[in-house]
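User: Hello! I'm new to structural biology and keep hearing that structure can be predicted from sequence alone. Could you demonstrate with Carbohydrate binding protein with CBM6 domain? Please show me the input and the output so I can see what each looks like.

Assistant: Of course. The first part below is the input, the amino acid sequence of Carbohydrate binding protein with CBM6 domain. The second part is the output, the predicted structure written as tokens.
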Amino acid sequence: MRFHGYDTSWSRRWVVLSIIFLGFGMLANGQGYLKAKGPIIVNEKNEKVILRGMGLGGWMLQEGYMFRLGNIGQQYKIRAKIQDLVGPERTETIYQSWINSHTRKADMDSLAKWGFNSVRLPMHYQLYTLAVEDEPVAGQQTWKEEGFALTDSLLAWCKANRMYLILDLHATPGGQGHDLPISDRHPERPSLWESEANRQKTIALWRKLAERYANEPWIGGYDIINEPNWGFEDPADKIGNKEKTNAPLKKLMQDITAAIREVDKKHIIIIEGNAFGNNYNGILPAWDDNMVLSFHKYGNFPDRASIAKFLELRAQYNVPLWMGESGENSNNWYQQVISLVESNDIGWAWWQQKKIGINQPMEMKVAPGYQAILDYWNGKAPAPGANEAYQSLLDWVSATRAENTVVHPDVIDAMFRQIHSTAAIPFKQHVITNSTSIAAVDYDLGRNGYAYNDLDTASYHYTPGVNTRGNRGGAYRNDGTDIRKADGEYEVFSIEDGEWLQYTVEVPKAGNYQIGIKAAKDSGDAVCSILVNGRKATADVAVPATEGWQQVAMGQVKLTKGTHRIRIYFNKGGCLLQQLTFKKV
């Protein structure tokens, strides 16, 4: 893996953390088939299993937002755009390379090392069977080996790492809702709910999958329809939030269950309610004794009230819960959500392992050539030549490979270590010598309030009236701290009153050290001070409200040999921060 700006000393520390994360995962690695037992999931030893999983979004099914293509949306539209640039033959080569590069054994090895004990595979039905419109004989099912072979390979990699694989039909025949990208839906064609042929194909596909994997204990379960979002009673209810009976959804899930049970009596069947897994009206009680209820959680508060309705369903119907998707937020939110669900005996699967951006374990880098294509598709630049575009798109594919991604240990730390510990630990080793500079963005790893303090730590984009964002710059780290890149350098900005950053440092030689900061005016007249090991060590210092970067002397402190925690505290925010400096005097 390539580590984002870390030195070799951090790499060694990361090995230690990996062992810790692996330990968390191994505690939940069960033996044999998973099954529902009352309100929990257990293994064949009757031990409770908390699934800690990762969703492989983007591999079999591309959603535009993952690659800064949100204005395009569905995968078939992305593919058409690519074909316009490079032609059909090269487009086919690009997509075959994508399938072979995006997810490999190296990815599963990394997930297991970090502590994950399960994987959720978002499947696109067209890798397994033809679209209804393309079947040569109406009503027949033509099977494609490609999808099954890919699933076989993934299962082998998961088994080698003792991780459960959960199959998730993310894109159903026809598409299961009005959110078009999540199912690669063609809106001009009949949806899953408007076509009996699409429903029969969905049922047949699940029977085929269950028949193939019936005797595979490392298959954790079948997540049969991802995020239905459809108004059956009221077509204007686009996401199905107001649906009272959900009768068509329940019938199809029952039909799928019956088809699976014809060939597989062992595996868990996972169901999702309407409105993206949130509306279970009319669906329960469960019709199978090995069933799990899934819900998805995004952009709302990480408190018990936010999952109370699902806890009530669990208590009423005596079925386990699984948070089948969550993520797309800040580290602080991740820690709080995972702590919340695990404390209520609920496993989880995060969304997602890799994309462009910082809020997942692996970040795809954006090459200049790919950016030029984005600029063209957004009307900001001329079209690149076919050969140039082809090479840029191959570079885009290459950016998905595990070894070419930027790994974000802060995300992983929040999802595993921080669930069990409030301790702040070094993000990067800082050794204070005669003259030392520390990048402001290399503050400690840990929870908000322990490694740093930020007043806006998460995005609540599905909570009316709450307009926070977390890291407003979307760069470098996924904590609440606002970080952006300007003129090639990372800087902390949008600093508010009472915020602070902490740095664990090693001092080989005791002495007096002059501490300074490299700062600039942002929005006001900032005032800050330095704390050493929790005690105020300098007077309050005003950052001159002039334009441009300047060195600001904070004062002289005496540091003994050993480890110290240096904290810069902002009595009053309003400046930019780029560095802390130490000079022995």
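User: So the tokens describe the shape?

Assistant: Right, they're a compact way of writing down the 3D structure. Reading them back into a model, for example: The chain has two domains: 2-59+103-364+400-412, 422-584.
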